Amino acid sequence: MLSARRIPLGIAVRLVRAALPISRTWRFRHPDDPGRPYRPVLKREVHACWHEHLLPLTCLLAGQELATLASRDRDGEIISRVLRRLGYEVARGSSTRGGSAGFRQLARSFAAGRGVILTGDGPRGPRRSLKEGAARIAKLTDSAVTVVGVAASSGRRLPSWDRFLIPAPGATVFVSLAPVVADGAPGTGDIQAALRCQVARCEQAAREARWSRPPGVVRSGRGAARDASPRPGRGTPARRSLELRLRRHWRRSRAALPLRGLARIYGGVHDARGRLYDAGFLLTHSAGIPVISVGGVTVGGSGKTPLAASIGRMLREAGHRPALLARGFADEVDLLAHEAPGASIRGHADRLRSGRRASAEGATVAIVDDGFQHRRLFRDLDLLVLDRDALRRTNGARLPAGPFRERWDRAVVRADAIIVTGRESWTAEVSRFDAELRDRLWDLAPGVPVATAVFGHGPLEAASAGARGWPGSPAPRLALTGIMKPNLFFAQAGAACASVRERLALSDHGSPSRRERTAAIRAARRGGVLTTRKDLARLRPFFDPGLPIWVLPETLAWKAGWDDVRRVILDTASGRQDRDPAAAG
After folding, report:
1. Alpha carbons 70 and 310: distance in angstroms, whole number
2. CB neighbourhood size of 123 (10 A)
């Protein structure tokens, strides 16, 4: 197969230009007015966007007297030739090569009357991690900054570092512009927060566009017409209804026969994959630095992400430079960034790639969030998180008949340390169950250290301007969450705040629909919203800043065994745990 790098430069430019006419089929819309075409006219100021949205924005903003920056490598040469044909003025340089000269040329273009638009995470990422370029050029030109969010109702993502977006022919492309509001000159953090907010608005509008059928009626029967009904999608009531039904089956001693049949198929495929790794037919690969995996055997709700953040914070305090490798869900990435300040946070499905990049950029240890089944990446330490609530209250079956990805009594053999977690109150009954579980774990995996932890909650924290200006004690009326176990959060919310009267559960990692946002605002109008730290980044863009929003922060209390597990973690991070990659599964 001919590599793209071997295509002559002139031919590569012609191929890119030949693909641009597809943009004429795209329907550009604003998230607040999806029924009307949207063609924004950019002001003479600095604009920031993500690198993955370069293609639709290039086509939308062509001919608007804009200047931009392209790297000095071969890809930058292709991009600069295409952009110049579309009317852009292109300066050459990047954060790694020729950046100062490029910024000076942009400043001259700005002085000559052109606006400036920059991709904040280019040219090589990490994805959606803003560099200082936009803030720097804004300070250099004494200009305001506007962020540009983009999302498409359908399209393809390239397997590149930025997951480059190519909207499908006829797709609806949502574009949203908003100025960055800050005290004084906007900093990198202010710009990144504003950009994430606008992208979230566009992505929600794109999801709603995918769920809805085109306007009009559908004919059926003898010419009768009926209204076209919305089609369910991620985060819709239909999805949540399916999740609730599955959870009810998980708490039965035996799930329905079709679910048990699917569970046998899923389990067979999973076990076959594990045997291929054990036999060496599938290989593990090193990231070049010690890797600590924090993973589980159940789907969601066991506390893997806050545990990974806690370990990252501990390692940073011990003098290490940790990198936290997440799956890529925005809410998990934001939670890790908040709970482990100073650590490098990377969200991508390919953990091996993320780990190697973290190693190349100076990280001394990588922590993989939800990595127990991610066996392609070699782990120096496997921390297995067992969900006490799932062990006590479910049937122990595999997906979809139960919440388990694999049999926990077999999985403990692969673990180097085990952490048992739970969010229920620590009662005498729970303490007795925990002691019995620890005894059984000792029989199944002798010599493996076992720790027990309980998640609780701290005092409410204001998370919006409306909450910070709230007179008196917090009094949220609505508890709102999109996590795997909303019932446990609602129990904690009721215990922490007697003012909570209404509850709304979204699907795991889900976002509210327009109807649900209206209902939530109506329910919260007399007191505000209470949510989790993990939900906050995903839900805040959908509500007005004046709406009082509080966060119920989680606390972590260790009941037993933490000193032994902590010692193993520190030894691994320091390279004192000698594990042979060739022998690892």
Report:
1. 39
2. 22
Do residues 467 and 430 both lie within one domain?
no
Same domain, 484 and 379: no
Closest of 487, 78, 566 to residue 307, by C-alpha: 566
DSSP per residue, 89-121: EEEE--SSSSHHHHHHHHHHHHHTT-EEEEETT
- The reply to whether 403 and 543 lie within a common domain is no
Q: Tell me the C-alpha to C-alpha distance, in Å, between residue 465 and each of 334, 496, 528.
A: 19, 21, 12
pLDDT of residue 545: 81
pLDDT per position as a tens digit, 531-578: 999 898 888 878 888 889 999 999 999 999 999 999 999 999 998 665
Query: ∠ CA(500), CA(498), CA(525), 5° rounding?
Result: 35
Residue 190 CA: distances (Å) to CA of 130, 152, 179, 197, 262: 10, 25, 10, 11, 47
Tell me the DSSP string of 349-365.
S-HHHHHHHHHHTT-SE
Residue 60 and residue 125 share a domain: yes
Q: Is the pLDDT of residue 286 over 80?
A: yes
Q: What is the pLDDT of residues 518-538, one digit of tens each?
A: 888 888 877 899 999 989 888
Q: How does strand 450-457 pair with strand 554-560?
A: antiparallel
Say yes or no: 443 and 526 in one domain.
no
Inside any domain, residue 232: no
For tokens 């297995």, name the residue: 384
- φ, ψ for residue 353, nearest 5 deg: -65, -45
Same domain, 371 and 486: no
176: closest CA among 19, 56, 334?
56
Q: Would you say residue 229 lies in a domain? A: no
What type of residue sits at position 218?
V
| 300 and 349 together in one domain | yes
**Whole-Å CA distances, 216 to 34, 102, 119, 207, 229:** 16, 51, 39, 19, 10
**Which residues form the domain of 271?**
260-456+559-583
Q: Are 197 and 294 members of one domain?
A: no
Separation between Cα atoms, residue 551 and residue 476, nearest integer Å:
10
